[in-house]
Design a protein that fits this description.
By secondary structure, the protein is mostly helical. Helices cover about 80% and strands about 0% of the residues. It starts with a helix and ends with a helix. It comes from marine sediment metagenome.
């Protein structure tokens, strides 16, 4: 609807300007290499798979990590890509660890 478009425009443009202020091309164009994009794809895959697990309030972290990687790819900002990869892989490690520990705890009841 027109109201929704106006709301997105009103709130989205300041958010995009904030991102543009911090995101800029860095580290000499690593994002243009096929290997970098391949590695980021491998990083995004487990993040997306774990995002499918219905654990309350965790999808925000995973989608934020993918968003950071996407912003980094769009603006050739390797720092954003690295940040998104680190956030995503750390979140995956935490969730997998909790699932393993929880499973072992249930097994030993």
């Amino acid at each position: 609807s027109a109201k929704m478009v106006a709301l997105i425009r009103k709130r989205g443009i300041p958010f995009l300007r904030l991102i543009e202020r911090f995101s800029k091309p860095r580290f000499g164009g690593l994002s243009e290499r096929r290997l970098t994009r391949f590695i980021l794809g491998i990083v995004i895959l487990p993040v997306a798979i774990v995002m499918l697990i219905p654990i309350p309030f965790t999808n925000t972290v995973f989608s934020g990590a993918i968003l950071l990687i996407g912003i980094g790819l769009a603006n050739d900002d390797e720092l954003f890509m690295l940040g998104g990869a680190l956030v995503g892989l750390t979140a995956v490690a935490v969730v997998v660890t909790l699932l393993i520990v929880g499973g072992l705890a249930l097994y030993h009841l």
